[in-house]
Amino acid sequence: MLKVTVLMENRKAKHAEGLSCRPGLSLLIDDGETRILFDTGPDAAFIHNAKKMGVSLDGIDWVVLSHGHYDHCGGLRHLQNLPKVLCHPGVYDHKYAGVKFLSRFIAIKKISTQLPSDQKSFHFTKEPYEISNMFIWSGEIASVKTYGYIKKERVVPDTLKDEGALIYKSDKGLVIFTGCGHKGVKNIIEHSRRLTGVKTIYAIVGGMHLRHAMPWRLMFLRNYIQDVNPQQILTCHCTGRWGNLWMPGAEEINTGDVIQIL
After folding, report:
1. Is the pLDDT assigned to residue 189 strictly greater than 90?
2. Predicted local distance difference test score (pLDDT) of residue 46
3. Can you give the residue ranges of every domain in the chain?
4. In the prediction, which pLDDT does 145 show?
5. How does residue 238 score in pLDDT terms, banded at 50, 70 and 90?
6. How many CB atoms lie within 10 A of CB 35?
7. In what order do the strands lie in the sheet with 129-130?
8. Contact between 222 and 193 (Cβ < 8 Å)
9. Contact assessment for residue 72 and residue 180, using Cβ atoms and an 8 Å cutoff
């Protein structure tokens, strides 16, 4: 059994009295042997929600950061006794939303955040990483998509090399956890298949960045998902109601939900 507790998501479940919600994502994933905190939302609200839900954050084996946007890793600095943190080194990049006019970059909003300066608990990797016999971190996922800009010695488009997925290898197929899914749902699924050698996709869980997607892109994705035929599609965060309309069999998960998969 794979237990998923939604500690933070854009919306709150109807039964979730006293919980806070923010634009962002934080999931506590537990297979009975390994406990993983997948993203931490934008601030300390996920800790508040865990306490309200009677969920202990002690004994977490890993924090896995999907990518370096503030709504996914902003809460990390609020964790006491920081456990091991697994992420791409690019999560520390200075990321901005903005526009490029002629040769000049105009920043509109910073979309990265303050992360711990003490990195002794961090394991940085660009490559896939085996967390346990069942969990694997995807490493970099090839894509030509860009989202915002990175400021280094110069300003460059952000190809989100730091964005990855968490993959659970069950005997019924793969369960794939996405943060925002900027890399594209198809790219993430095909990368996961190549990495593990497993073709069957049992479930896709998380944000899928479809709230402003064009209908022709969504029609293509709908046909692809029908071919893949996952048993569960659990969407949240940046998937959006619009995106859900095009995802066959999709169910929304909200702050306060506890889901059992497999």
Report:
1. yes
2. 98
3. 2-253
4. 85
5. very high
6. 18
7. 129-130, 135-137, 166-170, 173-178, 201-207, 232-236, 250-252
8. no
9. yes
The domain 2-253 having CATH identifier 3.60.15.10: the answer here is yes
Q: Could you tell me the CA-to-CA distances from 8 to 98, 143, 160, 168, 229 in Å, in that order?
A: 26, 27, 22, 21, 27
CA distance 262 to 219: 28
| CB contact at 8 A, 21 and 34 | no
B/e letters for 188-216, b = 16+ CB within 10 Å, e = fewer, are bbebbbebbebeebbbbbbbbbbeebeee
Contacts of 216 (CB under 8 A, 6+ apart): none
Quote the tokens at residue 224. 């692809």
Amino acid at 16: A
Cα–Cα distance between 6 and 12 in angstroms, integer? 10
- Alpha-carbon distance 20 to 78, whole Å? 16
pLDDT band at 181 (very low <50, low <70, confident <90, very high): very high
pLDDT tens profile 117-166: 999 999 999 999 999 999 999 999 998 789 999 998 889 999 999 999 99
Phi first, then psi: give them for residue 202, nearest 5 degrees. Answer: -80, -45
